[in-house]
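Please, structure for the following, as tokens.
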Amino acid sequence: MSIKIVSDRIIDLPGEELAALGIDTISCYINMDGKSYSDLDDVFPEDVFAFMDRTGRVAQTAAKSPELYAEFFGQFVEKGHTVIHFAASSGISAICSHAQIAAKNFPGKVYVVDTHRLSNGVALLAKYALKLIAEGETDAAKIAALAERKIPKVQGSFLLETLDCLYKGGRCSGMTYYAANFLKIKPVIHMNETGHMVVREKYRGSQTRVLEPYIRATFEKYPDPDLEILYVAYTTYNKAVQENIVKIIRKYHNFKKIQFSHVGCNCAVHSGRNTIGLFYLCC
């Protein structure tokens, strides 16, 4: 019997890396113009932004049903695997609860880890589980428990360029939105200990101006990082910005690897263009 690591597609790793790691994923729905699409199968962040530009509205996200999660898990259980599923935070989506409901169909065969994180924060925990397996651990329940204990060590945050998506999606008031635009406020959204998104800091000025204060504050608030890898998630590719990010990071820590990850539609819907996120483990 082998252990199979799976995740929601909100893990935000490229397909070739997921294939190399042996991690299968299940997408969420992205709803636009009365139709449902599968995230990163038939709709991509550029489509989400084009929809917002065309209609003035944001796309809607929806978790797949417990029945579809059961089908997803079942294909691996039928092959003799014990499954550990790394779910997007229950604090921001019904995704985790649907996975937990489905897991009840497979007692002792499917374990769901509520990561209290999203994007590459989920990836860090899934890769930690793979590391335990590579080191010889064969007890799926123990691996899931150890991964859950690792959650507080996962730092994850996003620097937003604008509040457009949050406002149009009904997640912030008109007064907050217009004030933020007038004052050129760039909020930092952080995943707290209960897996909810909260505002950590607010910076004023252009992205170029606030990028270093954001990175510096992150390292100050969450020191002693594991220098194996740092993920930088983004919604819009910009080579010059990426080069600047690496330059700033190197001022504070010498990570062995800095990996840039283009997020899927789920994150793009809520964060908007030019969003940048930092994810790493603390020792």
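The first helix runs from residue 15 to 21. Confidence is low (pLDDT under 50) at residues 171-180.
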